[in-house]
Design goal:
mainly alpha, Farnesyl Diphosphate Synthase
């Protein structure tokens, strides 16, 4: 049900002219993407122990891992290297995707910089040069660092959910979490 609600929120955000808040974006990905990570981790705990505290801890780990994953994935979608991502640079801008990096950029850009971003945002006719200019402005605003900081905050919450555990399984989950938030562009 959460995934369906998240998808509905995503479609609604895409259809609306207004720019959603960062909180609305986090709510949407929390339902759409993080819910899948949450249930996957919860099911592992249910199958392994059935202990309610373990289920809750792994649920929290999965939810925060999912949010960190999606935030990072959206950053890669805006600023990623097309040789690695297999997507054209700025494709999310052209499509008008209201992802965290784009929301942050639109919110923090002023004057000419904002016009450059908005010229490419949601414009299917944006040229490669329009997209390159918009991505350059987004880079200059320090959006990558801000987005990575938010992803790391969710990663820390995920790590805290595992604090009572030890052993190789915990180490592997933390390694996975670190990989997710440190993926390169």
């Amino acid at each position: 049900m959460d995934v369906c609600e998240g998808q509905l929120l995503d479609v609604k955000m895409a259809d609306e002219k207004r720019i959603p808040s960062q909180k609305e974006y986090i709510t949407m990905i929390g339902k759409k993407t993080a819910a899948l990570f949450d249930v996957s981790c919860s099911m592992g705990a249910i199958c392994a122990t059935g202990n309610q505290k373990d289920i809750s801890n792994l649920s929290n780990f999965g939810r925060n891992l999912g949010i960190a994953f999606q935030i990072t994935d959206d950053l890669i979608g805006v600023m990623g290297d097309p040789k690695i991502t297999k997507k054209p640079v700025g494709n999310d801008l052209r499509e008008g995707k209201k992802s965290l990096p784009i929301l942050m950029a639109i919110e923090s850009a002023k004057g000419k910089d904002k016009k450059v971003i908005l010229k490419a945002f949601g414009n299917p006719k944006a040229t490669k040069n329009d997209l390159k200019n918009a991505v350059d402005v987004i880079r200059s605003l320090g959006i990558e660092m801000n987005v990575r900081t938010q992803a790391l905050e969710y990663a820390e919450m995920a790590k805290k959910a595992l604090s009572k555990y030890s052993g190789s399984a915990k180490t592997e989950l933390i390694d996975l979490l670190d990989f997710v938030v440190k993926r390169s562009l």
